[in-house]
Design goal:
Length: about 100
Amino acid sequence: MSDWSELVLDIAQDVPPGRATTYGLLAEAARARTGRGSARQVGAVMAREGGAVAWWRVVRADGSLPEHLGSRAAEHYRTEATPLRPGGAVDLTRALWDPLEETHA
């Protein structure tokens, strides 16, 4: 695993329970440290290695996850009391966690 991938996973693991961030915000936070990275690259890291972290806390810009992950994520969202919209996507107006507002060593 590359250092960049490890950084992405480290930041993803920092998302508090009941909150969520987006692939794009996670990419911006990684880019602030390394000068590179995109939301698509974050998605690829999460798809390959995300099982080791709280993957359900990293969502698309509309608060959704890929369809095949929705039912697995729903249990985590209930346990963590994550604010959801009626369709099951994370309500980012209430749950957004911005990694750029946090310090990552």
